[in-house]
């Protein structure tokens, strides 16, 4: 998929938007209001971006734009929270060190964070013809399986991938497991959520079953949504850049295994996952989705923040623990698992 090399052709007028926005880091700590609501700390370390009302408990009925006083996202009206687990490096002596994040291409001055896309059709389709329904207040979703340790288990999900950045702008190939070699400019994870909503539930017990992949084909091929999940939404995608460069010069495991480990112990990469809590103000998201634009949707008239303003919105961790030193054990008590947890 060479979409990064595609530029919208001058004569291809999109009908709606591919919105690309960056969000700087809000906080990195063990909180997870979606999967472990109320738990302080939650099971494993996350990196979180978006509105600063992020907290251990996030009542779907609360109005995030009203509760936040700032957001780390480029659009000042986007108080959503977006988060993923974090990566650790495991040294030969068994100690762990957190892998820092970088601002994505064109957002190098952002304090880490992640880039979010909302697309109506395949990202490389500069016409973006589909009309989609924006998410509603209280909507949230999860994608992935923290217990997946095999390719078959990871295969339930589409497009939760890794790219070995030989150059900062490398965008292919996309791998399902951790890259097995040193990546010159870091590792990028790309996480795409399902795109068919049941039209009724803002959430579900597993935070996934109110959403579905298309019944046949793919989002990219315009596959239809199943009757159980008839509402086509935009595809939400995160890109997260992990700065593995500082670890390329250190000794890696002698047996050739990859030294990068998710904060909950997965060293295979199959348990890549992501969380989303919608929090755009009013109809701002629907407005931007309905406006023809490709990547830089400045013309929509929504207020854009500078990188300095985005970086200026931060939260103090409420969990008091060391997540950044050389650690004997991952926060929460996890150790690197290089193989499936249970025999298949
Ligand atoms: C976060 O949750 C805690 C515990 O429920 C509460 O005491 C605190 O006021 C909340 N903080 C914010 C910023 O909402
Ligand atoms: C383990 O190795 C790392 C990297 O070489 C080093 O910085 C760290 O101090 C070591 N930890 C221990 C406990 O020896
Ligand atoms: C990033 O910051 C540097 C140093 O402050 C500045 O010179 C540069 O113009 C900034 N780049 C962008 C894209 O904002
Ligand atoms: C950063 O936030 C502080 C406190 O809210 C504010 O006084 C300051 O003007 C902000 N700076 C920027 C660059 O937004």
From TrEMBL:
Pfam families: DUF1996 (PF09362). Residues 32-280 form the DUF1996 domain. It comes from the Eukaryota. InterPro entries: DUF1996. Residues 1-17 form the signal peptide. Keywords: Signal. This is DUF1996 domain-containing protein. It comes from Glarea lozoyensis (strain ATCC 20868 / MF5171).
């Amino acid at each position: 998929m060479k979409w990064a090399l595609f530029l919208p052709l001058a004569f291809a007028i999109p009908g709606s938007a591919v919105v690309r926005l960056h969000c700087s880091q809000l906080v990195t700590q063990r909180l997870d209001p979606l999967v472990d609501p109320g738990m302080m700390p939650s099971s494993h370390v996350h990196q979180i971006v978006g509105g600063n009302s992020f907290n251990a408990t996030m009542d779907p009925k609360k109005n995030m734009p009203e509760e936040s006083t700032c957001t780390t996202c480029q659009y000042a009206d986007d108080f959503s929270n977006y988060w993923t687990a974090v990566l650790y490096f495991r040294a030969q002596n068994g100690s762990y060190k957190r892998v820092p994040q970088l601002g994505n291409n064109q957002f190098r001055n952002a304090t880490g964070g992640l880039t979010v896309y909302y697309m109506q059709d395949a990202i490389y389709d500069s016409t973006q013809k589909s009309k989609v329904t924006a998410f509603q207040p209280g909507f949230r979703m999860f994608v992935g399986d923290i217990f997946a340790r095999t390719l078959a288990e990871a295969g339930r999900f589409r497009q939760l991938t890794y790219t070995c950045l030989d150059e900062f702008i490398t965008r292919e190939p996309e791998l399902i497991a951790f890259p097995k070699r040193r990546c010159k400019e870091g590792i990028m994870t790309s996480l795409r959520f399902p795109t068919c909503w049941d039209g009724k539930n803002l959430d579900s017990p597993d935070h996934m079953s109110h959403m579905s992949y298309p019944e046949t084909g793919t989002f990219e091929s315009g596959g239809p949504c199943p009757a159980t999940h008839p509402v086509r939404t935009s595809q939400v995608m995160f890109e997260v850049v992990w700065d593995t460069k500082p670890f390329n010069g250190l000794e890696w495991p002698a047996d050739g295994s990859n030294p990068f480990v998710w904060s909950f112990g997965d060293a295979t990469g199959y348990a890549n996952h992501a969380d989303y809590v919608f929090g755009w103000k009013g109809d701002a998201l629907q407005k931007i989705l309905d406006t023809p634009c490709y990547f830089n949707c400045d013309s929509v008239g929504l207020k854009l923040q500078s990188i300095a303003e985005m970086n200026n919105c931060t939260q103090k961790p409420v969990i008091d623990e060391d997540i950044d030193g050389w650690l004997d054990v991952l926060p929460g008590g996890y150790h690197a698992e290089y193989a499936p947890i249970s025999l298949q």
